[in-house]
Amino acid sequence: MLLLLIEQLSQMQISAWKCVICRLFLVGLLLGCSLLQCAKQRVWSVTLETHREYQIDVWTTENGLPQNDVIGACETSDGYLWLATMDGLVRFDGMRFVTFEKGVRPGIVSNRYTSFYCSPSREFWAGTASSGVTNYRNGRFTTYSVPDGLPSGAIGGLAGDGRGRVWVISNGRIFEWIDPSCHFVPFPTPALGYGFFPNEPYGFVSMNDEKMRIFLKGEVADYPLPKGWPGDASAQAGQDLVGDLWLTSANGNYVRFHHGAWSPIRQADFHQPNANFVDSESDFHDSRGRIWRTAVASHLGSFGIRYIQVPSQGATRRIPFRTLYEDRWGSIWLCTDGQGLYRIRDPSIQMLSRAEGLPDSNIYPIYQDRSGAIWIGTWD
Q: Beta strand pairing status for 266-267 and 253-258?
C-alpha cells in the first residue's frame, strides 16, 4: 500500500511546497513519527560529494614491505596488487605482502628493479639494474636479456601502449618487444646527444642543447628547447599526469610546455617550500571523473618531483610520488621514493555535522527518495 502511495504521489502535478509536505509525510510513515512531530523538525537534503574527503592508508617496511622505494604497481587479473621494489617483486592481497626473490621463484634472476610497466591485459614488465627485464604472464615469470635481443642487461626504462606493444631502454637506445618470436628488436629512432631516459609510464625522452625528443606510444615528436634554457646533461624532462611537458634542472630551474608553448623559465626558491609550486599545478581526471590537483616541484638536492594534493581529515595533504596507479575499484595507489606505498580511497564511513552544513547535531528521520537524494530531519 505504501509503494502504491509513493507511485501515485510521483505522478501528481503538485507545487513545490506540497511536495515537501508529502516527503515529510512519507518520512513519518517510514520512521514512525507523526506528521505533526515531523513538522516540528527540519528536513534537509544533502549531497555527499560536496565535502568529499579521502582515506589515506600507508604501508612501509614496518608493515611488511621489503623496502620503502616502490618503483611501480599493477593489479593482475586475479585481484592481487604487484609491486616492484629495489629488493624484489612483491604481491599484496590487502593484508599481507609476499616477496618473490631470485633463487626461490623460477624465472626471476634479480631482486633489484629500476623500472616497471603494467599492461592493459593486467600483466607486467619489471626492468632490472643489470639482469634484463622480467615479464609476469599467466602466473609465470620469464626474464629476457642479451640472448633475446637486448645489448645489455641494464634496463633504463619501460613503456607501452593500449594495444599490447612494449618498449625498453637499454644502453640509451629503444627496443621493441616482438611477442610471437619472444625477442626484442631495435626501434628506428636515434637519440639526441645523451641517449634516451625514462618518462614513465608514458615513454622516453632524449635531449641535446637545442631540442627535446619525446617517444610516446611508438610515436616520436621533437620540441625546441625554450629560449634561454641552458644545455645541461643533468636536466630532466617528462610529462605530468595531464600530458604537459616539463623541464627541470638540479639548480631549481623549471619550465612547462602547455597548449603548444613554453612558460617563462622559473627558479624554485629552496628556502620557501610553497614557492616551488608556483605555476606548476594542474588538474588530473581519473577514470571515474574525479579531479586531483597535482604539481611538479624542485627541492634542494632533487628536482622534478611530482605531488598530489589529497583532502583528508579536515586538511589537505601533499604527497610526493613516483608513479600513480588506479585499480579497478577506483582506489589510487602511489609508489614513492623512500616513503613506501600509499592508497587513497573513499572512506567507508562519512560523517556529516554542522561543519558540513547541518543546522543541528540531533538527527532523527532519514529518508532516501527515488532520485537518490538523502533527506535528514533535525530538531532545529
A: antiparallel
- The per-residue b/e assignment along 101-115, b for 16 or more CB within 10 angstroms, e otherwise, is ebeeeeebbbbebbb
Asked if pLDDT for residue 56 goes beyond 90, the answer is: yes
Task: Give dist(CA 326, CA 330) in Å, integer.
Answer: 6
Sheet holding 332-335, edge to edge: 55-59, 341-345, 332-335, 323-326
| Cell numbers placing 33 | 513519527
Q: Is 241 helix (H, G, I), strand (E, B) or coil?
A: coil
C-alpha cell at 122: 593486467
Distance of CA 176 to the CA centre of its chain: 26
- The string of pLDDT tens digits covering residues 324-359 is 999 999 999 999 999 999 999 988 666 777 777 788
CA distance 363 to 377: 6
**Residues 185-231: pLDDT tens digits?**
999 888 776 677 776 656 888 888 788 888 888 888 888 888 877 66
Indicate the pTM of the whole model. 0.74
Q: Give residue 188's Cα distance to chain centre.
A: 31
The answer to whether residues 328 and 322 touch, using CB atoms and an 8 Å cutoff, is: no
Task: Tell me if residue 21 falls in helix, strand or coil.
Answer: helix
Amino acid at 341: L
Sheet holding 211-216, edge to edge: 197-199, 203-207, 211-216, 219-224
User: CB atoms < 10 A from the CB of 96, how many?
Assistant: 9
> What residue type is 64 in one-letter code?
G
CB atoms within 10 A of CB 116: 29
What DSSP string describes 6-17?
HHHHHHS---HH
Nine cell digits for residue 281: 599545478
DSSP 226: P
Residue 29, classed as helix, strand or coil, is helix
Please state, in angstroms and rounded to a whole number, the distance separating the CA atoms of residues 257 and 244.
6
